[in-house]
Specification:
By secondary structure, the chain is mainly alpha-helical. The protein contains four helices and two strands; from the N terminus they run αββααα. It has one domain. It has a two-stranded antiparallel ribbon. A hairpin with a 2-residue loop joins strand 1 and strand 2. Helix 1 crosses helix 3. The chain is elongated, with a radius of gyration of 19 Å. The mean pLDDT is 89.
Length: 148
């Protein structure tokens, strides 16, 4: 592909990067978050009073995660709704806020320990160089010659 000016090249690159962020990168981050939830939240104790929703409407369900792109920034949020029958829905906090902080539970127990799956997701992505690898592979699939 040939470009007659830098402006057109820049536009082409930005369009491809935005597409990668909206597609492959958001899928990668959601997958990493689901894994972090499993390790950081679900593996810490077994509930006795309720059934976890997990990837069927719970914190590790990628359908509860939304991805937005603003410029070259991808933001993935976990918007899992609260269960109405566990006494935590009157706090004004989201389930993500409650779980990551360990606060605003009606009962006491192992769940009151902060389980910050958001920070765990960030750490995983950084330590595994996932962002760079995903971007490189996705841009190469789009026909760009990307090198380390």
């Amino acid at each position: 592909m040939t470009f007659s000016n830098i402006k057109d090249l820049r536009k082409y690159l930005e369009q491809n990067i935005t597409s990668v962020l909206e597609n492959e990168m958001s899928d990668t981050v959601k997958g990493s978050m689901a894994e972090a939830v499993d390790r950081t939240v679900y593996s810490t104790y077994r509930p006795k009073m309720y059934q976890r929703r997990q990837d069927r409407g719970g914190l590790s369900d990628k359908d509860n995660m939304t991805a937005t792109v603003d410029g070259n920034i991808l933001e993935v949020e976990n918007n899992t709704p609260l269960n109405n029958d566990h006494g935590i829905n009157r706090s004004g906090k989201t389930l993500t806020e409650i779980v990551t902080s360990g606060e605003n539970y009606m009962f006491s127990g192992a769940f009151e320990v902060p389980r910050d799956f958001i920070e765990e997701t960030r750490r995983d992505l950084k330590e595994n160089d996932t962002v760079r690898k995903t971007m490189k592979t996705a841009l190469q699939k789009r026909g760009l010659d990307v090198r380390d």
